[in-house]
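SAMPLE LOG
Freezer: B-3
Tube label: C17
Construct: single chain, 128 aa
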Amino acid sequence: MATPPASPPPPLPLPPPPADASVSLFTLKRTRKATQLRSLATRPPGAKRPMVNVDPATGKADGPHKKKFRTYLGIVARDKVDVTYDTWKEVPTGQKDLIWEDIQAEFEIPEASDIRTKKKILQTVGEH
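STRUCTURE (predicted):
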């Protein structure tokens, strides 16, 4: 015979606020903010850009900065592409070129001269 599951413990009471606090508990709630990838934004002006090797056939990044590169592509997608576009094909070519220039300004991509590499990286931006 199975025993019935125990009821969950009662919730713990909230600690009383300090006597001199004029801030309610609702203003102390922390929420998640947009990711800005501050490590790239705070890069000194004369510092070298992180190098990322990208396979032109697959668009996959390789190297020690591949995770940062992938994260940056997502940030660029959210910041630079308007949500009113239903598909990536609707985004104007001029806007895609600005996104590509922004990516090249932040990362050193040796294969950037290859048209296939640009196309694959921009497709990755469109997936975000």
